Amino acid sequence: MTEFIKARTANAKNDILSGLTVALALVPEAVAFAFVAGVDPLVGLYAAFMIGLITSVFGGRPGMISGATGALAVVMVHLVSEGNAIGEGLGLYYLFATVILMGLIQVLAGVFKLGKFVRLIPHPVMMGFVNGLAIVIFLSQINLFKVMDNGDKVWLQGAPLWTMLGLVALTMGIMFGLPKLTKKIPDALVAIVVVSGIVIFGELDVATVGSFIRDGGGEGLKGGLPSFQFDIFNNIPITWETLVFIGPYALILAAIGLIESLMTLNLIDELTETRGNSNRECVAQGSANIITGLFGGMGGCAMIGQSIINIKGGGRTRLSGIVAALALLTFIVFASGWIEQVPIAALVGVMFMVVIGTFAWSSFRILNKIPFSDGIVLVAVSSLTVVFDLAIAVISGVIISALVFSWENAKRIRARKYLKEDGTKVYEIWGPLFFGSIQAFNTKFDVKNDPNTVEIDFMESRVSDHSALEALFNLVEKYQAAGKTLHIKHLSEDCKVLLVKASSKLANVIQDSVDDPRYHVMAKALK
């Protein structure tokens, strides 16, 4: 028992310190995304707390941080706007209802084990995802170099700009140099504390967390515990029209949330050389969104930036995420005055280091060494992530990769032809028979000039889909119309089942009596 406790608490110090660092970095991110979505900052902060806590306890990837994200916020702003158009002030309640439905969809995805399909995402798509998100994070931080001036946001200039740049550079310098001296304490936490101390005791006039919230229209960080939103059910009628309105938004949000969460999970798996549970993460993310919707949060998913901060800071277990969530709640309820004094420059410096650590710089080195199609996918996913959103980028990348794969395999189908001693012509097919290779397959046969008996040997091929079945059916009809006999042999067991189910005509041309020992070896290998 003692050894079990020691094993569980061996990394406790790193988890706690890393969790505190993440909590500090979560504050401006959650507030900024709430402003993007057009809701009160507390709605974003509550989401970061509730989603972060629930996924840390029940999720499938210890060490991964979840909360309100920009990828979801850019979709939510349209939902809130349309909801307010239906009735003044109803946009927020439509948002909560949509987040609840989004969570239900994500839970179902986990229950039906759809999380495993993340394995189908090719590596170029993964690299494009990482690069695209790094650029998005960078651009979001650049916007923090603006200040309010007569109601408009303008770029910093002169001394304020140089002060901001100096503090950002100092933060990045501490994070770069401290690990070379010691790795016992998180470099990001030290950098935030040092730069905050310089700003507070030096009485520097710079943007802080508090001024950032007030400039965005908020009243400050102070808040209470989240409460159950009974008004959702009082203000939003549970009707078919409501479902038609929020349904598409819920589907889009669920897809974006799961894609970002599962791809971040894969990234953390690579960084820690461990394996997370994607289906469990789907259920946890969905459950968290249901609860945050009921208690007044804007919904969320995994956050790649904060997850990288946590992992780089030594956070490895569920404790780090739990500490981050509870610390964030503590900031909201008890320590708002202190947190509001943290300079934005320190948090920008931390996120810039996250960008540097997240971006796959090796993609520049390998771009001319990988297949041209993979390079196109990598660049396309990176660009689409920045221009549109993560879901469009990843789905587009997977589609491009799938089309390239299909095209390449379509070109690989071959037919070796020879005559037996009894005059039977044999076509030995090599390569998969599927929708992409049908045209090339049909050109291999010379029905008019073939002898009266023809065999098609599928020992090194497979019948993959309905298009392949239709091509075989048409071929059988052509030979029979020409008064010739066609046999299909060396089919695998599953291919036989397909042909028998598809048509009795196909079932009658299958040759079952096989005396070729190679076939039995191949059949066993395929089982």
Walkthrough of the structure:
- With 527 residues, the protein is an alpha/beta fold.
- It folds into 2 domains: 386 residues, no CATH class; 115 residues, Transcription Regulator spoIIAA (2-Layer Sandwich), CATH 3.30.750.
- 65% of the residues lie in helices and 7% in strands.
- α20 links the parallel β6 and β7.
- The C terminus is likely disordered.
Question: Short description, anyone?
Answer:
The protein has 24 helices and 9 strands. With 527 residues, the chain is of the alpha/beta class.
Q: What count of domains describes the coordinates?
A: 2
% residues in beta strands: 5-15%
Uncertain stretches of 5 or more adjacent residues: 518-527
Strand order within the widest beta sheet: 5-6-7-8-9
Question: What's the structural blueprint in terms of helices and strands?
Answer:
Elements: H1 2-9, H2 12-37, H3 41-58, E1 66-67, H4 70-86, H5 91-111, H6 123-142, E2 146-149, E3 152-155, H7 158-181, H8 187-201, H9 209-215, H10 231-235, H11 240-272, H12 278-294, E4 301-302, H13 304-312, H14 318-333, H15 336-339, H16 344-358, H17 362-366, H18 372-387, H19 390-410, E5 414-419, E6 425-430, H20 438-442, E7 453-460, H21 466-481, E8 485-489, H22 493-502, H23 504-508, E9 510-511, H24 517-526
Parallel strand pairs: 6-7, 7-8, 8-9
Antiparallel strand pairs: 1-4, 2-3, 5-6
Helix pairs in contact: 2-3, 2-4, 2-13, 2-14, 3-12, 3-14, 4-5, 4-11, 5-11, 5-12, 6-16, 6-18, 6-19, 7-8, 7-16, 8-16, 11-12, 11-13, 13-16, 18-19
Highlighted features:
Transcription Regulator spoIIAA; two-stranded antiparallel ribbon; 2 domains; single chain; alpha/beta; 527 residues; disordered C terminus; elongated
